[in-house]
Structure formats: structure tokens, C-alpha cells
């Protein structure tokens, strides 16, 4: 794969007519090392955030040994890239055939669930030919917790509530060699107190169930940094999670896990797009809602932008973007601040698209292709380059 210093060099060399994804392996490696060294437990990479085999290998090379996979396709993909990784099937609703294949063909032992029906499915699908229950199941009961502190809710679809949890934990304990509790506070959780609240619920569920708990998995939700969304330092999240984990009534050797997706890969990729047309304060660009900019269109996410031409001299103004398909919904309100004199034919780099960006591209309307190159410059924002030195610690303390 061709390497370039930065996006400007790519545009100068290729004048590309198709959108281009730029990957920064050094940024993903740095994020992986940060979690491996600083999170007080085990960090699983949530593959759905970006299933690129290159990225998965970078994370592995930098110490990430466990992977949160949510479909049989993610199981197969991750296993084919990393024969020795530990895969954990953390989608609480799976098909029998997916469970069976994961267990018998790919060595998956850890499964999450949020209902008795799913427990029965897992137990049945992992029985051997003689009808014996699997002796080595590691089960993880998913608890429903609040998403109130997160930019994207994950509260309504999965998780059992506090009324159901004790009975489900007791029932699961009978089939589990190792039993955990997991939850997800929602993506881009803007304060560590999201995890404190969720761990309080976890405590209530465990106390009521009075079963031995071997593992607590605080899920994903760790933020990255975007325009208008500057989270407190991740160290503050780790510290509070650690404190509240220790106070739980669990086995003395219980493990602490987390499942970051976004925080491990947001900085990995950016996107170069071409302006095809300008209409007032609207720019028609060649990627959009059905491409890497799904979140910019559908959940109004703000991504950083910068122009790639050197001859733009006017001050910035706010623009909205249209994507390339013929669909009105292919619209990104932004606002995106770019020089007033930007015009058709110019190029723009859109940053922080490594998580839920590069992974979202579809072929709808014939606009799916994108070449990928490696660049060496810094991502447009970073939680890991030392530029954000605990600026909001006081703020966090005062919230307690
Ligand atoms: C999506 C998902 C994650 C990753 O979430 P982020 O907000 O990207 O960190 C982790 N665990 C589960 C079960 C998920 O569904």
C-alpha cells in the first residue's frame, strides 16, 4: 500500500475523483497501548466499530488480545486474521447456528445473554454429540443501564432490567463455568459517572442474586474527541471504574473488562472528499449518508474538516454537505466551517472517521468505492498525543 505524509500529498499526487480513506496505523497503535497500559483490567476491541483486518492486526501487535465480536461474520473474520486471539460473542441475541459454529469451530467460550430464552439457546447449541452440557461456558449477563450521559443511546434494545437480573444470574450460574455481568452505557459517554451509575445497578443485581461473580465488563462507550464534544481525560474514567469495581460484592479474583470500539479506532481514519458542486452554503461532495458519513447525516454527528487547497484565502463560513446519491436524506447539516471561497473541484479532509465511519460504507447507488492509503501525520484530534493533560479533572471531582 502506498504511503504519503498527509492528505495534501495524496491530493497533489492523484487528484482523486473518488473519495479516499486515509489510515494512521500509529494513531491506532497509540490508542491500543494506552488502554493496555492504563485500563485497570482487560480491554476487548469491539470489532463492529471498524472491522478492517489491518486495524485488527495493529491492535493485536500492540497488546489487545481479546475481541468483542457480534456476528458470525465478525467471528470468522477476526479468527482468520488472529488465530490466537480470544473471541467473545457479546451480542445478546444470536442464532443457534452462529453459537454452534462459534463454539465448535472457532473456540469461542464467552457468550452474552439477556434472557432465559437466549441462555437455553446457548446451552443447547453447545452440547456435545452425547447430549452433555458444555463444561467450559463463560456466560455474561447483560444488564440494561441508562444512556443518559452518552451521545448515542444503547439503552432500549438490549439488557435485562433489575427485576429480572437476579433470577437470570442464578439460572446462568448453573450452566456457567465462569459468570460475568456486562452492560453498555451508550456510545461516546461524556462523563465517567455513566459507569458509576451502571456499576451501582450492577451491585444491586449481584446483591439480590447472591451468586459468585467472576467478571465485570463495563462495555464500550469510552469517548473520542469531536467538535463540540471534548470529554474529560480517559484516566478519570479508568480511576472511577476501578474504585467502584473494587467495592462490588464479587469473587476476590474477579476480572474487570471493558469493550472499547470508538476510543480505539476513531483516530485511525480520515476521509478525503471532492467538492462536485457548490450551491450557496451547500457543498455537494462525493461521499455521504450511505458512505463513511452515515453518522453525520443520520445522528447529526459533528466531524472536523479542513480544506486541502493552499490558495483559499477568505475567512471561514458554515456549510452543509450533500452526499453523492440521488436521495434527499443524503444530507449532512454540519455546520462545517470552511473558507468562503471554496468551490467545485476543491478537496476537503474530514477527520475522526475511524470508528463507525470507514465501516459504514455501502454500495448504494453505485457510490461505494474508496481507495485506502497510509498517512504519517497526526489525526485531526487526539486523546492520546499528550495534548490533553487532564484539563477537566476539577470538573469531574466537583460532580461527585
Ligand atoms: C458497539 C458495542 C461496543 C463498542 O461501543 P463503543 O461505544 O464504540 O465503545 C462494545 N460492546 C458492545 C456489546 C457493543 O454493542
TrEMBL record:
SUPFAM superfamilies: Alanine racemase C-terminal domain-like, PLP-binding barrel. Residues 267-350 form the Orn/DAP/Arg decarboxylase 2 C-terminal domain. It comes from the Bacteria. PROSITE patterns: ODR_DC_2_1, ODR_DC_2_2. Keywords: Lyase, Pyridoxal phosphate. Pathway: Amine and polyamine biosynthesis; putrescine biosynthesis via L-ornithine pathway; putrescine from L-ornithine: step 1/1. It catalyses: L-ornithine + H(+) = putrescine + CO2. Pfam families: Orn_Arg_deC_N, Orn_DAP_Arg_deC. It is an enzyme of class 4 (lyase). Its EC number is 4.1.1.17. Coiled coil: none annotated. Its cofactor is pyridoxal 5'-phosphate. Residues 35-266 form the Orn/DAP/Arg decarboxylase 2 N-terminal domain. InterPro entries: Ala_racemase/Decarboxylase_C (IPR009006), De-COase2_C (IPR022643), De-COase2_CS (IPR022657), De-COase2_N (IPR022644), De-COase2_pyr-phos_BS (IPR022653), Orn/DAP/Arg_de-COase (IPR000183), Orn_de-COase (IPR002433), PLP-binding_barrel (IPR029066). Belongs to the Orn/Lys/Arg decarboxylase class-II family. This is ornithine decarboxylase.
